[in-house]
Inverse folding.
């Protein structure tokens, strides 16, 4: 905690460069995601404009991939929208966590940064703001988030170009559930998250009889309720009332 | 596949909704307190939604939609889960899953 050499706010350029530097290793992780999204979008039958448009408008990988899978399943429109949004609920949690660090900024700037908020931008920014409280926060955020945005858009379109030339017997549609596996497994850090996944997965199997792919939402809600109950039960067990 | 106008309706609504989620507290300056239970529930959302997306695609046959406990996609998916668990690496997970699926199909198992 000995940061006495940095009592004055660093200039925006320095903070922006620090943001870019911090985000570079994470770009390696987002490149395959973007490509897979683009390839899958092409295989599902989106046009190039729709593929790129969804990336610009939604700018959230897991949500976009889930929507692709439901496009392919011809799910009902309300279920499509609900699923796309439910996956992004965590962004509200990041928003709450990062809000106190950005409240000195004018409203438009705050809204601009909010559009760029992702798992990665949040993780980098909250770490930096805690370590370097005097930093130029908006510049760091932009430095971290803009390269990420550009990479996501570029890879979406590159993936689309690849996807239109890949034959169906390569079974690249299987990359969507594989991507979900790569996203899910690292989140299984607590017993309650493991229970949530197990219950949700089991309910989803039985709930495929429900119309409009509603089973997905039902399964997620039941799974999360099970995980919450476990946490509630454990905390009441450990902490004296 | 959806019609183009329906696609854009869905895209714009999810886009606006996602932006609202991102901007919610940044805009309101944390004047709303998130309860402990809400935070816990939000933390469990990815596990709940992703598992519900994955499990049926691994256990139902892609051709017929019948439940099957032994087919190439399930084996490839389980291999990918193992690799994801031990490496936490997205690229390796994808390569393993696709690689095992292609290998099994090259061996004539469909």
């Amino acid at each position: 905690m000995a940061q006495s050499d940095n009592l004055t706010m660093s200039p925006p350029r320095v903070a922006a460069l620090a943001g870019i530097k911090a985000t570079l290793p994470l770009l390696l992780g987002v490149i395959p995601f973007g490509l897979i999204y683009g390839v899958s979008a092409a295989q599902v039958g989106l046009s190039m404009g729709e593929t790129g448009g969804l990336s610009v408008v939604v700018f959230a990988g897991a949500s976009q991939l889930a929507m692709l899978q439901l496009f392919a399943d011809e799910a009902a429109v309300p279920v499509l929208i609900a699923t796309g949004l439910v996956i992004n609920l965590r962004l509200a949690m990041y928003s709450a966590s990062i809000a106190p660090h950005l409240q000195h900024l004018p409203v438009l700037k705050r809204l601009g940064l909010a559009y760029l908020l992702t798992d990665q931008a949040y993780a980098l920014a909250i770490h930096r703001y805690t370590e370097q409280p005097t930093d130029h926060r908006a510049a760091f955020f932009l430095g971290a988030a803009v390269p990420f945005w550009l990479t996501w858009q570029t890879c979406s379109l590159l993936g689309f170009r690849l996807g239109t030339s890949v034959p169906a017997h390569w079974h690249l549609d299987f990359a969507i559930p594989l991507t979900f596996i790569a996203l899910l497994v690292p989140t299984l850090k607590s017993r309650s998250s493991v229970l949530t996944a197990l219950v949700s997965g089991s309910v989803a199997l039985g709930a495929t009889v429900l119309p409009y792919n509603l089973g997905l939402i039902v399964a997620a809600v039941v799974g999360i309720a099970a995980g919450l109950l476990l946490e509630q039960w454990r905390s009441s067990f450990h902490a004296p009332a | 596949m959806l019609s183009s106008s329906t696609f854009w309706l869905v895209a714009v609504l999810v886009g606006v909704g996602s932006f609202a989620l991102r901007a919610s507290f940044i805009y309101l300056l944390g004047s709303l307190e998130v309860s402990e239970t809400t935070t816990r529930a939000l933390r469990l959302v990815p596990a709940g939604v992703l598992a519900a997306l994955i499990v049926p695609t691994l256990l139902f046959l892609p051709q017929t939609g019948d439940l099957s406990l032994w087919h190439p996609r399930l084996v490839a998916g389980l291999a990918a889960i193992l690799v994801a668990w031990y490496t936490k690496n997205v690229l390796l997970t994808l390569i393993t899953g696709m690689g095992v699926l292609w290998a099994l199909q090259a061996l004539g198992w469909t």
Notes: The longest helix of chain A spans residues 12-44. The two ends of chain A are 36 Å apart (CA to CA).
